[in-house]
Amino acid sequence: MAANPVTSQGGDSQPDPWAEESTGLLVAGVTGKAIASQTGLGRRTVRRRIQTLMERPGAGTYMQLARQTARRGRLCDDHG
After folding, report:
1. Taking the mean position of all CA atoms in its chain, how far away is CA 4?
2. Which of 37, 65, 40 lies closest to 50, judged by CA?
């Protein structure tokens, strides 16, 4: 089964590399502060972008977003 990419904030169907990376990091248990550090963005910017991602699936927390993202297969399988 193919993974569905996380799409950009504008709602178009283009994959959003930042969303893919950040949700992957959330699934791995990385904090928002660490995501900001790793991506070179400010903590508030990261928080705002993740909040936007959380609105789509109706997730209430970062961990719910990570769990829902992983469940929906939106993250690529590194093994093939």
Report:
1. 12
2. 65
Q: Where are the domains of the chain?
A: 17-71
- Give me the pLDDT at residue 74, please: 57
Whether this model's pTM surpasses 0.85: no
Q: How confident is the model at residue 62 (pLDDT cuts 50, 70, 90)?
A: confident
Between CA 67 and CA 65 the distance in angstroms is: 5
- To the question of domain 17-71 being in CATH 1.10.10, the answer is yes
DSSP string, 15-48: B-HHHHHHHHHHHTT--HHHHHHHHT--HHHHHH
Burial of 69 per CB tally in 10 Å (0-12, 13-18, 19+): buried
